[in-house]
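[recover] target loaded
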């Protein structure tokens, strides 16, 4: 009961926050003024972006892929698309790549609850208690990781290419790790303690929407595989608003990119898997030198603190009421 009330509280707060964020996005979108230099070798399709947070909407640009994904029976057909853009100024320092979803309600009540925190702790990989409607596979095996959040894992993949001149293409090196919150990666998500991860998940099934099981999420890096895969953890931290961005990759500052991203021509090769047109959603990629906790974090932080305090207060008052009533009950019984 208290829990449910707290959830309600959160939902109301989230709505308020959403309003505030939308205002900020509106302000940001007015920064789009730069033009590509005349005679730039990439003409026509090239996008020119605001230099602070270049954002590339790719649902429309990849319309044929979006169309393909509308039909769920095409799930095994691959679809790539390429988007060229021009960065008018260099992005200095650390650069982060975010994906952004518009109109995806990761904050729905039933969706948020459809997960098993016990399972994700690695202590009991077969605990699927709260995971309806994704508890067990057709064959009756418990799903790992279970639940609607895990099953809907964002699965587009991206390659960023730098084109210093018309004949050269350099793949921009990106890092897959350290995108999740520290407490999530080292406290809330743990792999079962087994020598061999695939043995640890024996007797479980993969989520129905996943092409491969959880122990093959990153076979190259054991510290990024299974439940402690950063992409997975980032997705599992549900967003408060229907429009949200999530940290996906970090620029690996080596070779030509030690200073950051140089100005110039780039293209994204997008492996388009995640369907959004079914719910009139949109997808975008955002490059930024800020971590998400830059910018509007003060407001968000304060808001969370206040909710925390209010929740705690509610908890204690309800506890008091509960104890009072219990006392009276025992009194009557005597
Ligand atoms: C991207 O698409 C969303 C949703 O349609 C829209 O609100 C936003 O303004 C678009 N951004 C750009 C830069 O086109
Ligand atoms: C799509 O891109 C991926 C990764 O870059 C590549 O492995 C695959 O062959 C491409 N598929 C098509 C159909 O172009
Ligand atoms: C990607 O995710 C969608 C939605 O969860 C799913 O329908 C699709 O089968 C997945 N495709 C791949 C290649 O992972
Ligand atoms: C783990 O077990 C699987 C299946 O038994 C096997 O294919 C794989 O090679 C093993 N991996 C390691 C690192 O031992
Ligand atoms: C990028 O790095 C390669 C070697 O890694 C070098 O040959 C090339 O000149 C560099 N290009 C630019 C534009 O700095």
């Amino acid at each position: 009961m208290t829990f449910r009330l707290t959830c309600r509280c959160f939902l109301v707060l989230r709505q308020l926050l959403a309003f505030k964020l939308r205002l900020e996005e509106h302000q940001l979108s007015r920064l789009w003024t730069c033009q590509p230099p005349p005679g730039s070798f990439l003409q026509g399709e090239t996008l020119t972006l605001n230099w602070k947070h270049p954002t590339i909407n790719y649902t429309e640009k990849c319309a044929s892929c979006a169309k393909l994904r509308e039909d769920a029976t095409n799930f095994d057909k691959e679809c790539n698309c390429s988007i060229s853009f021009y960065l008018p100024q260099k992005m200095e320092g650390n650069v982060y790549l975010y994906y952004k979803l518009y109109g995806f309600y990761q904050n729905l009540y039933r969706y948020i609850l459809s997960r098993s925190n016990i399972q994700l702790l690695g202590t009991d990989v077969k605990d699927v208690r709260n995971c309806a409607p994704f508890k067990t596979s057709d064959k009756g095996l418990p799903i790992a990781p279970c639940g609607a959040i895990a099953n809907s894992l964002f699965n587009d993949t991206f390659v960023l290419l730098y084109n210093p001149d018309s004949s050269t293409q350099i793949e921009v090196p990106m890092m897959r790790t350290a995108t999740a919150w520290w407490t999530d990666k080292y406290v809330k998500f743990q792999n079962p303690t087994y020598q061999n991860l695939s043995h640890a998940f024996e007797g479980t099934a993969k989520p129905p929407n996943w092409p491969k099981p959880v122990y093959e999420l990153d076979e190259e890096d054991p510290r990024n595989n299974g439940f402690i895969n950063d992409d997975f953890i980032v997705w599992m931290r549900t967003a408060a608003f229907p429009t949200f961005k999530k940290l996906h990759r970090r620029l690996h500052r080596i070779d030509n990119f030690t200073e950051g991203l140089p100005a110039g021509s780039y293209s994204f090769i997008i492996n388009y898997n995640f369907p959004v047109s079914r719910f009139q959603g949109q997808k975008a990629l955002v490059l930024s030198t800020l971590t998400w906790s830059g910018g509007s974090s003060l407001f968000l932080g304060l808001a969370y603190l206040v909710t925390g305090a209010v929740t705690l207060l509610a908890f204690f008052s309800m506890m008091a009421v509960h104890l009072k009533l219990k006392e009276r009950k025992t009194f009557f019984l005597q």
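[recover] notes: Residues 236 and 331 are 47 Å apart (CA to CA).
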